[in-house]
Design a protein that fits this description.
Elements: H1 9-12, H2 18-23, H3 25-59, H4 61-76, H5 79-90, H6 94-118, H7 122-130, H8 135-166, H9 177-187, H10 190-218, H11 220-226
Helix pairs in contact: 3-4, 3-6, 3-8, 3-9, 3-10, 4-6, 5-6, 6-8, 7-8, 8-10, 9-10
Length: 227
């Protein structure tokens, strides 16, 4: 009587497979690192653009309408159409994905930063001006710090959204874990699809919790107010 066949979950193509994790850990690690890079870079660039745009919209009310309108229109463009529109400029490259995610993140960041700036009490501004604060010092030491809770909320949403949208980059070969999901769905490789999907969720939750922790550190007065 022949010995029983080994329990090979890869051969049986099961959804949960420890052997997949052990034999493809380097592939998974590379995909996770690419996913993190394709998330962090566009969100950071979008934040660098969103802050001055929100400040301009707050300083000059006539600019608020056009800034919000343009960023909102960009957000309504479907991701596949956005990448197609950017393709002649960036080609099939990681820059294509980064540029698309920057444009998507702008709406969430600009709206929240602007809402935070508008929520700063006028009496607080007047008190700072009475103490000799100029426009730049007022912005950096009073308005932006008080706008942080709203800005961080927008940053958290933009980051989590970027984690999910990065997977769409698989259509051009730069999707991080999305590449594994896309390839796994084409070949019905269950373990690969599930593992890559779960890792995307883990990255999104971890990023949100990390930013929440940063927000609590940067805004201790919100904890005091809530206690």
């Amino acid at each position: 009587m022949s010995p029983p066949a080994p329990d090979d979950c890869l051969a049986r193509n099961t959804w949960i497979c420890g052997e997949y994790l052990s034999t493809r850990r380097h592939i998974l690690l590379d995909a996770v690192l690419e996913h993190l890079q394709l998330t962090a870079v566009p969100v950071a660039l979008a934040l660098a653009l969103a802050v001055p745009l929100a400040v301009v919209a707050r300083r000059w009310s006539w600019a608020a309408g056009p800034v919000l309108a343009v960023t909102t229109i960009l957000y309504t463009i479907p991701s596949l159409a956005m990448f197609s529109l950017l393709l002649p400029v960036y080609g099939l490259s990681a820059s294509l994905v980064v540029a698309g995610l920057v444009l998507y993140s702008l709406t969430l960041l600009v709206r929240n930063i602007l809402a935070g700036l508008r929520a700063v009490p006028e009496e607080t501004r007047q008190a700072a001006r009475g103490m000799g604060y100029g426009p730049v010092r007022l912005l950096l030491t009073v308005e932006l710090p008080l706008a942080l809770p709203a800005a961080m909320a927008g940053l958290r949403i933009a980051t989590v959204s970027a984690v999910s949208l990065v997977t769409i980059g698989a259509i051009v070969g730069f999707g991080g874990l999305g590449n594994l999901i896309y390839a796994g769905m084409n070949t019905y490789f269950k373990a690969q699809v599930l593992t890559a999907s779960v890792l995307c969720v883990v990255i999104a939750v971890a990023a949100d919790l990390l930013l929440l922790g940063v927000q609590r550190l940067l805004t201790p007065w919100t904890r005091a107010a809530g206690s």
